[in-house]
Amino acid sequence: MNNLSKDTSNGQALGTVTLEKKPEVKEPPLFQVVLLNDDYTPMEFVVFVIQKIFGYEHGKATEIMLSVHNKGKGVCGIFSKEIAEMKCNEINNLAQAHEHPLLSEIEPLSD
Ligand code: TYC
Questions:
Q1: From atom 5 of ligand 1, which residue's Cα is the shortest distance away?
Q2: What stretch of H or E contains 91?
Q3: Which atom of ligand 1 is nearest to 102's Cα?
Q4: Alpha carbon distance 87, 105 (integer Å)
Q5: I want to staple 46 with a disulfide (CB 3.0 to 4.6 A). Which of 36, 64, 65, 70 is the partner?
């Protein structure tokens, strides 16, 4: 907004320029949920977990599991910090409950 014209009703000196305010809300930082490979968790259990926690269909979940199996780790999804933490905990709790060493972690996504 600029007031190079006459309106000084806000008390501002004539001829000064007011810049638009920066938006006050910033998008929240994003986090990746990363699944880690191990030598013991059965492949079908990993596929089951990926489907249950992230809603992927069986084929896509298998693709993600195989990528983690071959590369050591892999991203299952990107979320706000709270949702990423929740999904990570759900995976780790499910694995524990079934006595598998499967682990996930969250990683900040640099933008
Ligand atoms: N490497 C495991 C096996 O050979 C399978 C596996 C895949 C485990 C992905 C964990 O995040 C994982 N049974």
A1: 43
A2: helix 81-97
A3: 10
A4: 9
A5: 65
Taking the C-alpha atoms of residue 106 and residue 79, their distance in angstroms, rounded to an integer, is 10
Question: At which residue do the structure tokens 């000064």 appear?
Answer: 16
E-state strands within the chain: 30-36, 73-80, 103-108
Query: Cβ distance 100 to 49 under 8 Å?
Result: no
Compute CA distances 54 → 1, 3, 50, 78, 108, whole Å. 46, 53, 6, 10, 18
> pLDDT by residue (tens digit) across 9-63?
444 455 666 667 877 888 889 999 999 999 999 999 999 999 999 999 999 999 9
Query: Hey, what are 11's tokens?
Result: 């008390």
